[in-house]
Amino acid sequence: MNLTENALKVLERRYLAKNENGELIETPELMFKRVAKTVAMADKDYVDKKELAAIEKKFYNLMSQLYFLPNSPTLMNAGRPLGQLSACFVLPIEDSMEGIFDSVKNAALIHKSGGGTGFSFSRLRGKGSSVNSTGGVASGPVSFMKVFNAATEAVKQGGTRRGANMGILRVDHPDILEFITCKQDNEDITNFNISVGITEAFMKAVEDGSDYDLIEPRTKKKVGTLNAPKVFNMMVEMAWKNGEPGIVFLDRLNKDNITPELGEIESTNPCGEQPLLPYESCNLGSINLSLMLKETDNGLEIDFDKLKEVVHDAVHFLDNVIDVNKYPLPEIDKMTRGTRKIGLGVMGWADMLLKLKIPYDSNQAIDLAEEVMSFIQNEAREKSIEIAKIKGVFPYYDKSIYKDKKIKIRNATTTTIAPTGTLSIIAGVSSGVEPLFAISYIKNVMDNDELVETNPIFEKVAKVEGFYSEELMKKIAKSGGLHGIDEVSDHIHSVFVTSHDITPEWHVKMQAAFQKYTDNAVSKTVNLKNEATVDDVREVFIAAYKTGCKGVTIYRDGSRGSQVLNIGKVNTNEESTQGKLSITPRPRPDITNGFTEKVKTGCGNLYITVNYDENGICEVFTNTGRAGGCPSQSEATARLVSIALRSGMDAESIIEQMKGIRCPSTIRQRGMKVLSCPDAIGRLIEKVMIHQNGNGKSMNKEDIKLNSFSSQTQPVMASIKKPGIRGERDKRNYYNDNCCPECGEPVEHEGGCKICRSCGYSKCG
User: Fold this and answer.
1) Which residue(s) pair with 601 in the sheet?
2) Which of 193, 242, 257, 269 is catalytic?
3) Is 739 an active-site residue?
């Protein structure tokens, strides 16, 4: 099995089974065998034992040779007690208090099971409209989106995958202006990606420069008008500022709705690539295109015979996933089995182009994208038709467009281009259909040392052509790409382009090329340079509309106060403008004041001390009583909290992370006032903050942050001079938005999500 060191690290951290002590009890080989065996069992009623064993082996080879990988929940949960194998779901939100909080509950159950959720808030009545049952007024969709956001924050702690949400509001909803600007503060509604649901009528009004009607969803009556170009410009300006909102073309989604009799498509999954009906789930997987090549007399060519074989096996695999899946809600079980939608996509597209020596931003690449994806789509449908002859069509076939076409098919949809995040790390290839993010970059390792990571295809070419050196790789890492690198010949420059080398026009062209032959939608982020203008963003949105895309997401480098890739020198403050944020804890003060509290836990008494000085809370100590407990764990927690506080982290963030953590030994006993040792530490820190503020009054959010953000750390923070960064709050956003919270390394923006290639963290799971 050809797994990279980074792939093994990600698998061990996030995918492989562990025992109750957190010790690994599984290898990658055993993981793939576990998944293959579970998924193959869907065929047990159709084949004999020998054939079933052959299917299991086929699925194992498909994954272990990295030709194809299913979405993360399938790798994590197949053959294990949870058994939830879907990546994402769409839930309806009805316009009633009962309906809203039913959806909150259902979303919590889905997040607990490892899935993400998409919602349309368009059914909710506008802010200020009457509520007949109470005589009051409605608070509007954005207020309830904050409720969903808070619920997600509460549920996601301790999970293998983080709860992620997509929030969509129709452009003709009365609250659309509030929705467009609801994330202009990067610290608001952090567990949602948001997109505006665009209609064809709105886009025509934009082109005509005219007004359009706002419709109250409860009454379906016109309640006002807005100027379409002004609203469109507001979307553009907000996207330029911080990447949100994205846009989704609702009429196009429903034009391709395979089962229109079941309802309208009103939302997508958290990354924008899977339009779904309410209660549907997505079952996704990706083919590794970088391995679909063969040597010929004329050099490397696409191996279409191999690609056909992999497509057929992958469709078989994904169709089986639907049957062995344990769904979190009965409504989802019924709907998913009813339409049997699968989404076969690709990864390693940029790597394939590099191996074929084809520039990403070329007509040759666009033509090849259409050829490859049309082949995959046709073969996927052929395999689905073949399965239908044995197992039957999907149950809602009579409500589909296939009935009139007399096409007997097993799956309502077969293709989707999803972001591949951690899957591409496991496979050791580029993400989805994205270009390379960097050719070479710097990664921090232990003892403040630096490691240069270089794209293996580029490294191989550099060695073959004789221009490879460690010094050159470090030089390239300072910018991530080849711009200004004279040691590299022009033909290498033209092929090895990175995301920021490619103009927005070519990003959209590539997305449109894949969309042309994809049943569902294509997840892709148009990554722009920091100096990109508002007009550049506007052109991206318009180009996406004109070229047939179903939606588009942009991210302008540094727009949320951070560089998205760790390039350049990273260990010196004077050069921090080229790399990630570096923070050194301030020294421990000689004299402190504080509180000590005795807390009863499931393991005995825990004594906690929280100290502060004139700059705020600065350290935490713990000591366990004679009954024992986990002294080393408590001490480690206290030390890390102390370092974080003296490094300038706001105390509120620490409290939010620690309060609510549950320990079985504590929660199983009666009379406990805390949930765990970390929960107890978080509660005492909060008490000390309240005391510092005086008169027993809690500090507000900004008071807390200013109080705990030490003046002694400000000179370090102030050395960061990224475009658009103003003040300490933006500096924190700089780090929080684009550095991984788990390992501190920078993240890439892909398909509306964030992915860390160092540890496999993904905002969207």
Assistant:
1) 604
2) 269
3) no
360, 344, 361, 351: which is closest to 292 by C-alpha? 351
Q: Which residues contact 289 (CB under 8 A, 6 or more apart)?
A: 346, 347, 348, 349, 351, 352, 372, 429
Instruction: Give me the residue spans of the domains in the chain.
Output: 5-80+285-427, 88-255, 438-497, 593-718
Out of 88, 165, 186, 271, which one is annotated catalytic? 271
The residues, any chain, with a CB within 8 Å of residue 23's CB and separated by 6 or more, are none
Residues 6+ apart with CB under 8 A from 510: 360, 365, 366, 369, 433, 524
As a whole number, the mean pLDDT across the chain is 87
b/e for 101-119, b at 16 or more Cβ within 10 A?
eebbebbbbbbbbbbbbbb
Torsions phi, psi of 321, nearest 5?
-55, -40
**Which amino acid is it at 289?**
L
Q: Which residue has the higher pLDDT, 759 or 452?
A: 452
Dihedral angle, C-alpha 327, 332, 337, 340, nearest 10 °:
-100
- 301 is annotated as an active-site residue: no
Residues in the chain, overall count? 765
How confident is the model over 161-194, as pLDDT tens digits?
566 899 999 999 999 999 999 998 877 898 999 9
From the candidates 56, 244, 273, 280, which is the catalytic residue? 273
* Intra-chain end-to-end CA distance of the chain, in Å: 25
What would the DSSP string read from start to end of 296-337? ETTEEEE-HHHHHHHHHHHHHHHHHHHHH---SSHHHHHHHH
Examine the pLDDT at 699 and tell me if it is beyond 60: no
Token pair, residue 244, equals 């949100």
pLDDT single digits (tens) 357-400: 999 999 999 999 999 999 999 999 999 999 999 999 999 999 99
In this structure, the strands spanning 551-556 and 525-528 are parallel
Contacts 24+ apart (CB under 8 A), 603-611: 603/627, 603/628, 603/629, 603/630, 603/665, 603/666, 603/677, 604/628, 604/629, 606/634, 606/677, 606/680, 608/638, 608/680, 608/681, 608/684, 610/684, 610/685, 610/687, 610/688
**What Rg, from alpha-carbon coordinates, does the chain have?**
27
Specify burial of residue 328 (Cβ count, 10 A radius: 0-12, 13-18, 19+): buried
DSSP letters of 74-128?
HHHHTTSSS----SEEEE---SSHHHHHHHHHHHHHHHHTT-EEEEE-TTSPPTT
**Highest-confidence segment of 127-131, 481-485, 758-762:** 481-485
- pLDDT tens for 513-566 read 999 999 999 999 999 999 999 999 999 999 999 999 999 999 998 887 533 333
| Residue from 347, 408, 415, 352 nearest 379 by CA | 415
Write out the H or E segment, with its range, that includes residue 557. Answer: none
